[in-house]
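Hi F.,

I've been meaning to write this up properly since the lab meeting, where we talked about keeping a consistent format for the predictions we share between groups. The idea is simple: the sequence comes first, exactly as it goes in, then the structure tokens exactly as they come out, then a line or two of notes. No screenshots and no reformatting. I'm using this chain as the first example so we have something concrete to point to.
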Amino acid sequence: RKSGQYGAHAKGAHASEDAALQLCVRRQLATLYPNAPIRQLAAWNGFEGTYFLDPMCDLYLAIQKEFITEQIALYGTDHYYNIDPFNEELPPSNDPAYLRNVSSQLYHSISEADPDAVWVLQGWFLHNEQTFWQPAQTEAFFTQIPPGSGIVLDLYAEAFPLYNTTHEFYGVPFIWCMLHNFGGRSGLYGELDRVNNGPAAAYKQAGKQMLGVGLTMEAIDTNYFQYEFMLEFVWRPAPVDDIPSWLARYAARRYGSDDAHVSSAMALLADSVLNCSTGQSGPSGSLVVGRPGFNLTQVSCCDKMALYYDPRAVEEALRLYLDASATVQQSPLYRYDLTELAAQVLSNKMLALYTQLQYYYQTADLSGTIATGVAMRAVVGDMEALLSSDAQHLVGTWLAAAGAWGNGTDADAALLDFNARNQITLWGPGDSKLIEYAYKLWGGITGDLYLSRWTLFTNMVSDAVANGRPFDTGAWNSKVTAMDVAWGQDRGKGYPTTPSGNTLLIAQRIYSTWCT
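Output, unedited:
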């Protein structure tokens, strides 16, 4: 994985890593060891704080050694061990002396069990808690890792590289990683220029301190063009000179045939939706999925609704795709990409209609409010039809796969179904701060939960305007929360696992309805 231009680790290229004991432990450990230095951390995004075992104590060393020894006996080892001690949690002290001791102790804890141990850790904590991790703290922490015994994943390097602000992690080798999409949210999105230039710039500065490139995405099966482009850097010696031409060649391989219309579409996408430079953490939020409300700027905690490109570029790319040859149109991968393109057109249209709805509400224009509500519901309905026509865009497949892991017991299947539903909606309890963090534009949930939300919301807005009174935000929040919670627990309602409808015809209707 890390051969070619960007080298390989001296101890051999690796494709996996072993677990090691983190600092978070079960609360029951305090009952077994009442004198152990265990404390509860602060709550995280509404979730109860976990329990932290101070790594400086002998108990941590003993458990770590026993854990790794047993793991090696069961599975063997490649000598790479992951410990992320302060991932979205602050250390109890910012004293450099303390951080030096902690870092030294953590490496000692794995090397006691495996003298050839290499500590692998994410660099995310440096980005997430920049105020805490000043140069003195960062240097103190990294310089205690013995030479050749650590690897840092520069986790989000395409947007916020850390190697160039930390003296290449003060001598600890690193891997330049593309995170790309927090939560794996649906929608077209790329950072082609940044990915094209980032690895080469890092290698030029750091040389052999940069071991290779990696992917640290939080989901798969999104934006295939971006990932194929990134993975070629394992072998590519320099940035691509002509990104649109690269995209056109990749599309020809992907669909099995070259096509001038597709090549022209690639040029448009390369200069718009696939070339974000804002540093945002994924695609612009789709309001089709977003929990409705007024004055929204985000769909989830980690996206932005505002577009960083001209939406007309995507509309024109859709038109060009629809004009592709019959040979290209037979490719399932073409139909998948066509689905993604048409879905992005609908998401962008929903954003424009949302702006209209707020205007008509604020100006008490009843006819405009009603008409816009009808149009918004039509967009969501068209989205459902589109997504349901492609086998890779079905929530039923996701839920069926989760339930199949239930080991033949209904209780296990029910728990897995609940978690599969919760992950793509609330991402926690009903009042979750991370709602829609990992949303998916999939058939089934779009025509059920998302359409139900927007139907209720637009009807309530029209009713408020018709009766000359403010929108009842309190009543709305109670109703939509109950709706979301109910969907997450409604295991009895199944969804199709096979597609229905003709993707090409549906996409043509979407273009003629919303783009002309």
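Notes:
The chain is about 50% helix and 5% strand.
The first strand starts at residue 18 and ends at 19.

If this format works for you, I'll send the rest the same way.

G.
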